[in-house]
Amino acid sequence: MAASTNTFRQPQGGWYGRNIEELCAELASDPHAGLSEPEAKARLALYGENRLQEKKRKSLILLFGRQMNNILVFILIAAAVISALLGEISDALVIAAVILLNAVVGVIQESKAEQALAELKKLSTPRAVVRRDGALREIPSEKVVPGDIVVLETGRVVPCDLRLIQSVNLRIEESALTGESVPVEKIDGVLLSDEDAPKDMHGSGFSSKEQPLEGVLKEEIPLGDRKNMAFMSTIVTYGRGTGITVATGMSTQIGKIAAMLEGGEDEHTPLQKKLERFARILGFIVLGLCGIMFGIAAGRLYSLGGVVPREQFFQLFLTAVSLAVAAIPEGLPAIITIVLALGVQRMIRRNAIVRRLPAVETLGSVSVICTDKTGTLTQNRMTVRECYAEGKRTALSGIDIQNPVYRMLLEIITLCNDAGYSPEASAGDPADHPQGVPPADLTDHPKAHRVVDQAYHRVGDPTEIALLESSFGFGITKEDLSSRMPRVDELPFDSERKLMTTVHRDSRDTFRVASKGAVHVLADLCTRLYTSEGLVPFTGTLKENVLKAADRMSEDALRVLGAAFKIVRQDSYTKEDVEKELVFCGFVGMIDPPRLEVKGSIERCNEAGVRTVMITGDHRNTAFAIARELGIASEPSAMIDGSGLDELSQEELDSRVDRLRVFARVSPEHKVRIVRALKKAGHIVSMTGDGVNDAPSLRAADIGVAMGKSGTDVAKGAADMVLTDDNFETIVAAVEEGRNIFRNIKKVIVFLLSSNSGEFISVFTALLLGWPPLLLPIHILWVNLVTDTLPALSLGIDPGDSDVLKEQPRRPGESLFAQGAGWNILANGLLIGCITLGAFSLGLLLHEGSLLHARTIAFAVLGLSQLFHAFNLRHSYKSIFQVGVLSNGYLIGSFFLCGLLQLLVITLPPMASVFKVVPLQPNEWGLVIGISVLPIACNEIAKIFFRMKRH
């Protein structure tokens, strides 16, 4: 029985490089009897339950406080307090509502991200079969402890990290952890380099076939190549095995990923950073200018009379505060939130769910998309692509099923097959499908690695399922063949033989032997070759040509499986000779094929200046073949694998990362390292993926995008965006949507600042010139209220520009005022300020110095000119007629509604009395409209010169 915990020393790693005897001694466990119950309880108390630690949730108060810790929010709070003290209760309430709205939305979005580790926990299996006190017992997986002997069977989820003691045809699906396309065949031997390998490879006494891994040092073996290990949350798809528990809970590979998630800090998106910088700059400028204006005006009044009257001092102070409140676009945070939220709704209609509002804009600014291969660029299901028979390679869809050689090839891979495949009834009868074309719904089915897929009735190994699917497209089904030629004997697949053979009753007195396996092994067992002309000797040049063809197919990243057969008489059949003197028929090449739509999507990304980088755990040949087919990389020099990455320092990787397009055989740590190197190189990085192994890199990237159908809950929880259709094209749509949303946000910022600066310039200039107050505080606040709401929001939801993907991505550090936005704000602010001053002067001239009339005209022109100016912002260089005057119905509606409100305030006597204005005559309204339309006229002229310069 096992020793006490006093003598137990848990190993820290390198389990795959130790023999079982050494490891069992270190773990104080008996491979035959397992642990005793008292010992297991003691270890459970010592090491804790086999579960992933949950990240401590942030309290609502803390989340709310984080949302309030923003300089723009502080300025808004101060503005609300001052407005309330000055009696502007309605304005104070509006500002307070904006602050609370943004805080609540932020809390809701951030709380969703806290569910990532809770979703990660769901991947662990609820039950495990262990050997305790010499007997098999099924226990909750949380009770598994280091040293436990765990039994694995087909369909079970591995409950912890295991060093395998016994492996019988054991294959484990690890794609969610390592990115491997097909289940990994496991062994139970030590993985050593040649120089480390002991002469007696069976020193443990418990291994039947310990195998060294050539030329790889213990500490350098990648996760995907640790074939004598089974990892927590992976799935057994075939065979059986036994392993000793070497890691539980957070010490497992998936636990390390969970720790990486927990340790990662949430970063602000580029938009949030820009808005924070913008808020700080705006706050200082506005407060400083208002203070200067107040000081100049007060000094002027003092110089004229020696004493500033209390009423004038209060009115001046109120004007300065009103300008400060008006100059700060308090509606901007709410408008941006609404614009992003509406963008999210559009993205949902385009099969993307955004978990955080700013992520829409961030995806639009990415310059690099790092994408996993399996399940993202590919369909995550093995597919027969080519056949070799009759001395030539042929695409599956191009074979002639009437040719007896091809029919025999398909019959062999169907008979010699332990999988089950029966498409649902809606798929129709096999005979209804064109030759070589499987049912249409088979090209987009859920992940094929599932052990049992009820929707499509797939059972067994994905490779064998792919063989059945290829035959099904030609009307050859396993059910039909098995009914005509029932199986009477078999030799299961063995990793040493690299073959599987089945025997079927072909007639009353004959058997058909069907074999499939490695081509080089099968070729040595064959003495004849099957051709359409009959059987010919399989020697010399014929065999050499077949082997060369198989090698070339392997170099093209296809997994090759050969097929052979023979007919034997029942009375002469012996199991010992069943795999001798076979007839070679041909072989098939399989691959996890790329998604049909991905190549076009990558081309669109290239056109948009967005680089696509493949990061996968799969083999380098397979990765490069897919990358070359999709147009990601054309030269092998653009690829590096995990061992190559290990040889590079971080500085060397940083210098080379821009030249690399494919990263193969990488670990989760490699992925995070690559993403960080790209970010350090100045890129805004998006990472797409679906597996547990993708979660840390999804969090490390500027924006993480998870697959909704095939993705694990961990990937979805760690991502900023989830694609419900697992379609790479949706990412391109998101890039387009994100760019348009950022453009719209920039339109809103430019509109608000140019309009508000027009207000400030007009009032400030009038004070400098010694004029009477151009506008009263209530006028400023009213214009600010009217123009900062509906027109700004309408610009925020402006229809997208069809040419947006023809432009290069924004530079990561690009200012919100880049590409002429700053000059646009200044020029239009001056323009609006000047025409308001001109309208005031004209009013004085027309009404013989009547301040009331002049102020009314200036008030009307200031409001209407800003409404007209909104149409200028729909495009930076295209005319409003090129964009389409009526294409934004919301802007048209807001223009007429806000214009009507401005008209009613001036025209209706009760409102005119409150606002201290006088009704205008029709000819005066004509003058007001003529002056107010000047921003459109001036901007249209400027756009003509801009287009001439652009072309």
In short:
The protein has 951 residues and is α+β, with helices and mostly antiparallel strands. 47% of the residues lie in helices and 16% in strands. The chain has 35 helices and 27 strands.
Structure description:
By secondary structure, the protein is α+β, with helices and mostly antiparallel strands. The chain folds into five domains: 15-54 and 122-263, Calcium-transporting ATPase, cytoplasmic transduction domain A (Distorted Sandwich), CATH 2.70.150.10; 74-113; 331-347 and 737-802 and 815-950, Calcium-transporting ATPase, transmembrane domain, CATH 1.20.1110; 352-379 and 595-726, Rossmann fold; 383-422 and 462-591, Calcium-transporting ATPase, cytoplasmic domain N (3-Layer(aba) Sandwich), CATH 3.40.1110.10. Helices cover 47% and strands 16% of the residues. The chain contains 35 helices and 27 strands. The strands form four sheets. Strands 10, 11, 15, 16, 17, 18, 19, 20 and 21 form a nine-stranded mixed β-sheet that branches. It has an eight-stranded mixed β-sheet with strand order 8-27-26-25-9-22-24-23, sandwiched between helices. Strands 1, 2, 3, 4, 5, 6 and 7 form a seven-stranded antiparallel β-sheet that branches. Helix 11 (332-349) runs antiparallel to helix 26, helix 26 packs antiparallel against helix 28 and helix 30 runs parallel beside helix 35 (934-950). The radius of gyration is 36 Å and the shape is elongated. The chain starts with 19 loop residues before the first helix and ends with a helix.
Write the layout of secondary structure elements.
Elements: H1 20-27, H2 37-47, H3 60-68, H4 71-85, H5 89-113, H6 116-121, E1 127-132, E2 135-140, E3 149-153, E4 161-173, H7 175-178, E5 184-185, E6 229-230, E7 235-247, H8 253-263, H9 270-305, H10 310-327, H11 332-349, E8 352-354, H12 359-364, E9 368-371, H13 373-377, E10 383-389, E11 392-395, H14 404-415, E12 420-421, E13 452-453, E14 458-459, H15 462-472, H16 478-484, E15 487-494, E16 499-505, E17 510-517, H17 519-525, E18 526-531, E19 534-537, H18 540-555, E20 559-569, E21 582-591, H19 598-607, E22 611-615, H20 620-630, E23 639-641, H21 642-647, H22 650-656, E24 662-664, H23 668-680, E25 685-689, H24 695-700, E26 703-707, H25 713-718, E27 721-723, H26 728-768, H27 777-787, H28 790-796, H29 821-846, H30 851-872, H31 880-883, H32 889-907, H33 909-915, H34 922-932, H35 934-950
Parallel strand pairs: 9-22, 9-25, 18-21, 22-24, 23-24, 25-26, 26-27
Antiparallel strand pairs: 1-2, 1-3, 3-7, 4-5, 4-6, 4-7, 8-27, 10-11, 10-21, 12-14, 13-14, 15-16, 16-17, 17-20, 18-19, 20-21
Helix pairs in contact: 3-5, 4-5, 4-10, 9-10, 9-26, 10-27, 11-26, 14-15, 19-26, 26-28, 26-29, 26-30, 27-30, 28-32, 29-30, 30-32, 30-34, 30-35, 32-33
